[in-house]
Amino acid sequence: MNTDLAIETHNLGRIYTIRNRRERRVRREIVALQDVNLQIPRGELFGLLGPNGAGKTTLIKILTTLLAPTSGWARVAGYDVVREPQKIRPRINMVSGGESSGYGLLTVRENLWMFAQFYGLPSREANRRIEELLRRIGLEDRIHTKSSDLSTGLRQKMNIVRGFLTDPEILFLDEPTLGLDVNAARDVRRFVREWLDVHPDRTVLLTTHYMVEADELCDRVAIINQGQVLACDSPENLKRRLERDALFEIEITSPNGLTGAILEAIPGVRRALLTETNGGARLDLTLVADSALPDVISVLTERSVRVRHLTKREPTLEDVFVELVGKPMAEAEKREDEDEP
Amino acid sequence: MRRQWDTVWRSFRIATWLGWQIESNWTDPFLFAVYSMIKPLASAAILVVMYGVITNARFENPVFPYIYIGNAFYMYVGSVMVGVSWAVIDDREHYRTLKYLYIAPIRIPAYWLGRGIARFLTGSFAVLITMAAGVLFLRVPFHPAEVDWPLFLASLVLGVAMLAMMGLVLASISLMIAHHFFLIGEAVAGALYLLSGAIFPLEVLPPWLRPLGFAMPITYWLELIRRALLGDAARAFPTLAAFSNGQLLGILGGLTVLFGLIALFAFRWCDYQARERGLIDMTTNY
Q: ipTM of this model?
């Protein structure tokens, strides 16, 4: 057992068996996770980046002892998630985004105090931490408000405080900014970063499908799709994979039958993604070198497609995702939604 | 060992506080008090009116206090047993907190029992109101000097513990069921109402159903409560006349321990199954 690792998984897998409600003998298996191998050292902010339905939440459920894996094993804080959940639970906490959890009849302070008590925190210390954390996340003026009277965003902030309140060794943040407006999401990201600055020995596992969030916050990122980890490295190293390529974003007028496949047939074009926009389209090009660009422009001109704007840009995690999965995350999410049981 | 008991006590204590906050704060105190009185009286009134119509208002018949007391104390079944199991559904579906409680360092069965305490308190109030109404307005025989108080208190404590254990079994099963979960508590309470001699002696049941009635600890509990409150009048029915009070207490105690063990194994099995099948945080949006 490696005690420097906060989280370790080995060939971790999870298959859900879905029974048909009408014909109960008919069963269908859905592979949610497949051979996931991760090693997350203590003190790291580790990101799981992937579309909805990629298996991120399933992995978090297994690591937080809510769900048993169907293959492989996982250790959290050095303890096995299946055999030793009672040893893991005092050391972890979790916050899930996009839901309105909490006891609406209780005030913000009461909700938080109660959870602190469940973790055995002395009342005075719990109240001190509640006030401090609420102040840092900008919710101190709502401390006596019933949580049912909070907006979704403020309730989410309260839940984020609940996760940090117990000062967990390992914190699981499952899409913590889902459903929040831009400012609230920024507050939350800042809050997470500041907490880690104060507690450098703590570990955070963050799942997100926001590229910017993963890029901005995470020390390392695992890109996950259809239950499999496709790549795992720091955001810089992941993006560096694409630095040999030239990336262009071109705004064009109506495509006039132009497709990505037509452009990918041009020598030197590695990938061409065409996205319809209001009154035109956007072309995301990955070229082997800048020298391939004139040929692309020629094809556009032949088809009477005018270029409105052309930008050469640095690679992003979205580009890495496209490189690994073969399509943008939004498209991968659409596909996952169609596959939902 | 000491740490484990600390965890159990902490889980129970905070859950009791939470349960009371939920039970008592859903409306303003006046409405809460009115509701707490009207609800038990209304349910008792239905039974009294039915009895009056069927028997030509023969309230002096010993059947009446048998029915009335059985019905009044049966309210504990709804409040304690269903109250304990309802915490699963409430936390999972309504408050969406079950997964956060589950990953906290608490003992979930102790937490459920704590949540049931508030229901026990409101249930006690309902029983008290119903009994008071019966004594004051319907001549239910109740003479404090003739009540066997030690037997009453022992039966009450043992009975509530037994109902709490049955509630834990129900809560464990609720952990594994999402669809139509809210019907389970009502269905079980309804079935037990029929089988446990709450409003009529077991002899009224078809012979093939009687063994089920004799297997139910609630049957013995209600008999003990009636004997403690009514004295010899409770022996007007032959169902358990052959048993002494001590024997009945022994049977109730034994069945309570048995249900405690069943609750322990039921929780372990259902907890394992729920984690295997990913049911702990499953919500239906019903």
A: 0.86
